[in-house]
Amino acid sequence: MNKLRLLFSFFFICVFAACSNDKDHVKEMPRSVTIVLSKQNSSSSYRHFIENIDTTITFNWINAYTTPLSQLTVDLKNADGIILTGGVDIHPALYGNAFDTIRCGTIDIKRDEIETTLLNHALESGKPCLGVCRGLQFMNVHMGGSLHPHLPDTLSDIHRGKDGNSTEHEIYVTHKLGTLDIKPGNKSATVSNHHQGISRLADNLDAWAIAPDGLIEGIRHSDTTHYPFFIGVQWHPERSDPASSLATPIAAGFLKAILNETGVKKNTDTSETKPRASDSFSTQAIMIDDASSQKVDIEMH
Questions:
Q1: Active-site residue (options: 142, 194, 236, 301)
Q2: Is 236 one of the catalytic residues?
Q3: Domain 33-293 has CATH 3.40.605.10
């Protein structure tokens, strides 16, 4: 009888231990999020900027610039967040100055088309969307605002160093943002490298940070209920010092918005979704005049 009791006790201990191990295994499985970049840079600084916030998360990154539209459409449906990265100039036709290309640098119409697709999806879905430098500018243009084609001609030259190099200047936070742990009145040194910026702010966007010359440096969607994280910054947080800038709260706020939207996601095997047949981008027409050939072939952001 004692042997039988010992046998049953051993059996239940083994079952309990197996269940406990399974639970521990589930707890240790990493969360997984998918983020679409409008164009990935060679240094992967945007990836490191977000990944450093939480090393327990598995990040799946999609480079929209090299992804066919058919596949990008599928990827966007499965994506948890979107980042519009820095880059070359937006075609001025998109903000009503079609013949002002002479004051622009390199223009990439394909990039404009891709980011139109990404922003249309972000506005339709309400998914977290972060715009950096050019990304902030495209948010504003896409929603009806305009840009200074060349800031040294109209405002100041504090936003870019000599020979097109990066520089630093302070930005001043003017409004509280519930999605970011940044307080009004905060002054912060930022890495800056751009020659264009917001001239007329789109009606459905709010400004929350400015530069010393008055240029808008931070924007968000006015409708924070449907768009809890639709935020753009004119500077480069992914290249700024995390210890002395607003970089960390921006990255953390973006990631928090993603996790709140998706919940805790586990790594699971999923069947591959077949892409759609069409690979051509569809966007509004851009009229290009002969002056567009007079470009400076340098990266402007």
A1: 236
A2: yes
A3: no
